[in-house]
Amino acid sequence: MARIGEVTAPVTTRDALVRARTRASLVPDLLVQARRIVGNVIAGWHGRRRRGIGENFWQFRPYVDGEAVARIDWRRSARDEHIYIRDREWEAAHTVWLWADRSPSMLYRSTLAEVSKESRALVLILALAELLSRSGERIAWPGLTDPFAARNGAERLAQYVMHAEPASARPNLTQVRRFSDVVIASDFLDPPEETMRWLDPLARVGARAHLIEVADPAEESFPYAGRTEFRDPETGEKLTFGRAETLGEDYRRLYLARRDALMSWCKKLGWSYTVNHTDRLASEALIRVHTAMTVEMDGGR
């Protein structure tokens, strides 16, 4: 489907440089906004502990054929007729991969919204980085950083984004491993089949994804009438209609069908799908994603 763009154009080398400089100047403010949102919404996010490799005793459990003999606790096993394994506790800091779409379509901002889709996506990702870092989780940005754990994780991630080259392509997700979480903020305007193919490696390895669709209200409501020119910010292709209002019904049907297809697919995989309109509060999406991740984490794997 064509993407609506009122103030965007195809990315040239000069455009890319301007975008990079503009983002670099805006990221510090976006980081401050992200921290403010986190402070207003959640006081903290406690880490989890689960069975694994570590030094502290967790529990005894019956030995299962095939397990390493070295893990048997012979002293405990000598008390009765059963053989027991001594499990140890693992401070479970797993990796959460965070990614905000920075393709040209994300620059779109209609008169109905105060921020662009790109700004909103970055605020949400930085807010999650702040939240996760406080609880000791490892975070990473695919194609930009390796996983790391730091109290100033959001600030470090912001620094990486500030100095990164503008990226229109979606990152390769094959580096994501099982039991990881992946949070993606994008407009997801590509055909749903393309998005599914891109994210399929996550489903295959058993990772969990949380998709945040960032939508401008005008993209959903299509408030256009009369002679209107539409430009695709990715390709520069233009379409002009004398009576744009005649397209409204078909456009809205296709737009929502794309979203419904992605939502259904995510539900089938046990993933979460959140929609955040840029005329609404970013905290609304943060709460929903935080809740989805917390329930899944606390419920175990």
Characterization of this structure:
Helix content is 40%, strand content 19%. It is an alpha/beta fold. The strands form 3 sheets. A 5-stranded parallel sheet has the order 5-4-6-7-10. Strands 1-3-2 form a 3-stranded antiparallel sheet. A two-stranded antiparallel sheet has the order 8-9. Strand 6 (181-186), helix 5 (192-205) and strand 7 (208-215) form a beta-alpha-beta unit. Helix 3 (117-134) packs antiparallel against helix 4 (153-162). The longest helix is centred in the N-terminal third of the chain and has 29 residues, at 13-41. 32% of the residues are buried. Residues 1-11, 43-58 and 89-93 have low confidence and may be disordered.
Count every helix, treating DSSP H or I runs of 4 or more residues as helices: 8
Strand/helix succession: HEEHEEHEHEHEHEEHEH
Strand arrangement within the widest β-sheet reads: 5-4-6-7-10
Q: Which regions have little confidence, pLDDT < 50, spanning 5+ residues?
A: 1-11, 43-58, 89-93
Distance between the termini: 38 Å
Structural class: alpha/beta
How many strand units? 10
* Secondary structure: helix percent: 25-40%
Average pLDDT level: 81
How large is the share of residues in beta strands?
Answer: 15-25%
Main sheet overview = 5 strands, parallel
What gross morphology would you assign?
elongated
**Rg, Å, rounded:** 23 Å
